[in-house]
Amino acid sequence: MEELMDFDEAVARFDPVIGLEVHVELGTETKMFDGAPNAFGGDANTYVTPVSLGLPGSLPVVNAKAVEYAIKIGLALNCSIASSCRFARKNYFYPDLTKAFQTSQSDEPIAYEGHLDIDLSDGSSYRFPIERAHMEEDAGKNTHVGGAEGRIQGADYSLVDYNRAGVPLVEIVSHPATGVGAKAPQIAASYVRSLRDVFRALGVSEARMERGNVRADVNVSLREGPDAPFGTRTETKNVNSFRGIENAVRYEICRQAAILAAGGTVVQETRHYHEGDGTTSAGRVKSDAEDYRYFPEPDLVPVAPDLAWVEELRAGMPELPAAKRRRVKVEWELTDEELRDLVNADAVDLVEATVAAGASPSGARKWWMGDIARHAKEADVELRDAPVAPSDIAELDGLVRDGKLTDKLARQVLEGVLAGEGTPSEVVSARGLEVVSDDGALVAAVDEALAANPDVAEKIRGGKVQAAGAIVGAVMKATGGKANAARVREIVMERCQ
């Protein structure tokens, strides 16, 4: 068990510096350098071509759509777009890298020197500095059989699936982020969340972290103070959850602080993150760039995006998440806390789509953040994966606004929709849940309730209007909650005049 310093003590004694390398898989139809399908899942080693497998004599061709997506990402991150850039070979051996090198970009990235402003839960903001965004290909996937937690240590054997080999990636490399202090874990997670939202807004990736579409390498170092040289950093690899990013930063701060306080030296190394307990463990000694022996890829010509094309892409950029949040806060009359809840639940786009389908902002927010969110949590799925569409919620909200459903009945209808019983109208019809609005039926129910409660009826006639609630409750119970409560109250008062 590694020695840890208390987090508050660690950030009081040392100045944390963080950096992130975030990989996003692009949602192109084909891979980065060949025509193999770029798809999730599938039988092992079926989405491959000779190029994917790195077979001798096979030659790469750059995916133009991937270049377009990379430029859009660069523009969204306030980067400069290179007038010309090249691919390079990054040399290292690993079983899932058939060529023994990765085709990437080294000193000539497609986009460089940008930033992303992120909002924090306490209402403050932080400008995260970005060094570069470059294009590259993904490696395959190793499956280690027999070892603990799927690790190679102690495994009996390993299997390699090359379906992912060659999938187009953009890697966003940050500059060291300074001045983060005790907010370092939150800033790191919020930065990656903001990037994820940008990718989705651009339509360049599904950006599903649970599928590895977005994953982060988390760099952490400590120094004596803000004016001291940077300390030795560690790099926790392939963290694919916001909680994991936050935990990895916090753990490394506590671990490194304990080492430095004891007079030890932090080793520059890669580390593995363990989701179960939020800890990290040593991987391998970290290589520097020169160890990869980068050199220009001889089989690919430089990429030189036309300036007019870049400006055309810039002009066609969609509304980005930060601008959308500012807009909907005003349009939907949200408090800072309400907006933060929507953002943290990844519900802004869902609510917006529901409003666009005809719901009121308050109604859309109520359903997504209430009953649907609870259902998603119980089913252990993302809110966006709940089996209900924005159009269903807009229809449900309309039925309530039109007085055809009470809130109680609407919840029963939603249960049916979530259970796959059809649209709200179909569930209402099948379950017979529509509000009873027929005056004849309501008058009869009121008269029956008044007759059964003569003492209450007498109090109402004597001017105690609040006693009408007991009769309304009796009618609602008798009708199974299907009566229009407002109309029932009106009838009660009319009958007791």
UniProtKB/TrEMBL annotation:
SMART domains: GatB_Yqey (SM00845)
GO biological process, one term: translation
Entry keyword set: ATP-binding, Ligase, Nucleotide-binding, Protein biosynthesis, Transferase
The Asn/Gln amidotransferase domain, residue ranges: 349-496
Swiss-Prot/TrEMBL catalytic activity: L-aspartyl-tRNA(Asn) + L-glutamine + ATP + H2O = L-asparaginyl-tRNA(Asn) + L-glutamate + ADP + phosphate + 2 H(+); L-glutamyl-tRNA(Gln) + L-glutamine + ATP + H2O = L-glutaminyl-tRNA(Gln) + L-glutamate + ADP + phosphate + H(+)
EC class name: ligase
Matches recorded under PROSITE patterns: GATB
Residue stretches spanning the membrane: none
Known EC number: 6.3.5.-
GO molecular function terms attached to this record: asparaginyl-tRNA synthase (glutamine-hydrolyzing) activity; ATP binding; glutaminyl-tRNA synthase (glutamine-hydrolyzing) activity; transferase activity
Complex and partners: Heterotrimer of A, B and C subunits.
PANTHER family: GLUTAMYL-TRNA GLN AMIDOTRANSFERASE SUBUNIT B MITOCHONDRIAL AND PROKARYOTIC PET112-RELATED, GLUTAMYL-TRNA(GLN) AMIDOTRANSFERASE SUBUNIT B, MITOCHONDRIAL
Protein family (similarity comment): Belongs to the GatB/GatE family. GatB subfamily.
NCBIfam families per record: gatB, PRK05477.1-2, PRK05477.1-3, PRK05477.1-4
Function: Allows the formation of correctly charged Asn-tRNA(Asn) or Gln-tRNA(Gln) through the transamidation of misacylated Asp-tRNA(Asn) or Glu-tRNA(Gln) in organisms which lack either or both of asparaginyl-tRNA or glutaminyl-tRNA synthetases. The reaction takes place in the presence of glutamine and ATP through an activated phospho-Asp-tRNA(Asn) or phospho-Glu-tRNA(Gln).
Name this protein carries in UniProt: Aspartyl/glutamyl-tRNA(Asn/Gln) amidotransferase subunit B
